[in-house]
Task: inverse folding
């Protein structure tokens, strides 16, 4: 069974930094691209970032480019999202999701971790 | 405003058939596969339809997807109360090199 468990969320002041983690199990982690998707309170889904299985290729939404960095440690089966220069509009539940075939087919999702940016 | 346009709401009575549309452009739906996600209240999204019209294991055949040109549709037949959820379409956009989601459609079972 595929399991994705996010952690690292919390309350952070504007301008601050936070690192999210996503621990994966139940599949060969290095074989699959991974994504971060967020959902602001009461809003729809917004794709944030993706990373290839090897970690060589990364992709970002314009809203986070230059502020967020996606990375993975395949030896630890863990995905990361380093977030800096956080803004109020970054407040959301952050989900990690496994990509079935690098086509944006997000076939497994974690339960999400809440990030609140507020003073 | 999302690059993929969905109606904000849809509704139907139990047993009826409803369809949810998703309109995009040549750089996303026109050139790439469309996937659909179901998000039940208070839960994480779940893959419902992938590669335009395929159902993951465990998804009832009441759910079906289709794509034509720069638009896609999700159909739900034999509507049930447990289908009440938010539904999102998604596709990769080749011009922006990003994954885009539709704004979501809230389905109400009357």
Result:
């Amino acid at each position: 069974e595929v399991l994705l468990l996010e952690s690292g969320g919390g309350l952070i002041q504007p301008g601050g930094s936070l690192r999210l983690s996503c621990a994966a199990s139940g599949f060969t982690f290095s074989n699959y691209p991974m994504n971060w998707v967020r959902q602001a309170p009461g809003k729809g889904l917004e794709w944030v970032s993706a990373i290839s299985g090897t970690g060589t290729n990364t992709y970002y939404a314009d809203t986070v480019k230059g502020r967020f960095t996606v990375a993975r440690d395949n030896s630890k089966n863990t995905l990361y999202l380093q977030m800096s220069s956080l803004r109020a509009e970054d407040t959301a539940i952050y989900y990690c999701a496994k990509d079935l075939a690098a086509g944006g087919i997000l076939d497994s999702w974690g339960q999400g971790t809440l990030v609140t940016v507020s003073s | 405003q999302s690059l993929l346009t969905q109606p904000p709401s849809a509704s139907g009575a139990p047993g009826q058939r409803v369809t949810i549309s998703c309109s995009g452009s040549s750089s996303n739906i026109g050139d790439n596969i469309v996937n659909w996600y179901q998000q039940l209240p208070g839960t994480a999204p779940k893959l419902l339809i992938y590669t335009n019209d395929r159902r993951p294991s465990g998804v009832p055949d009441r759910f079906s997807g289709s794509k034509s040109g720069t638009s896609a549709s999700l159909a739900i037949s034999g509507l049930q109360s447990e289908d009440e959820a938010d539904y999102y379409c998604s596709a990769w956009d080749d011009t922006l090199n990003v994954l885009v989601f539709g704004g979501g459609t809230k389905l109400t079972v009357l």
